[in-house]
Amino acid sequence: MKLLHMIVNRGGQWSKGKSFPHFRPSWPTIVTGDEIGDAAAVPMWLDVNGQRMQTGNTNTMIFDCATIIGYLIEFMGLEPGDLILTGTPPGERAGMTLPVFQNVSEIVTLGIDGLGAQRQVITAI
Fold this sequence. Notes:
Elements: H1 2-8, H2 33-36, E1 43-48, E2 51-57, H3 65-72, E3 107-112, E4 116-121
Antiparallel strand pairs: 1-2, 1-3, 3-4
C-alpha cells in the first residue's frame, strides 16, 4: 500500500530517480536461479571513493520480488529481459541527517554478490 500511496501522490523517488533518459546502469550479466541461489537473500553494497556507504540484502527490501512483479503486471506487460528498478540498500546519502549528494570526480562502486561489481566516475554534464 505504501508503494501505491507514493505513486498516486507522486511522492518519493522510487522510479523517478532511476528513469532519466539513457540512465539505467546495468551490466551484461545473466545468471540462472541455481547460480544466484536464494534471490530473496542476495547481499549488495555501494562504496563512494572506497568508503562503504550502503550495505543491504534483497531480504531487506520493502517489497519482495513477487509483490513488485504482481503489482506491475496489474497495469503493464513484462517480457523476458525487462529490468525492474527496485531501490537501494539502506544508507543512501540523501537520507542522512545532513544530506550529502554526489560530487564531480567521486568514484561510485557497487556490487551484488554472485553478479559482480561496476564502477562509475561522476562527471559534470
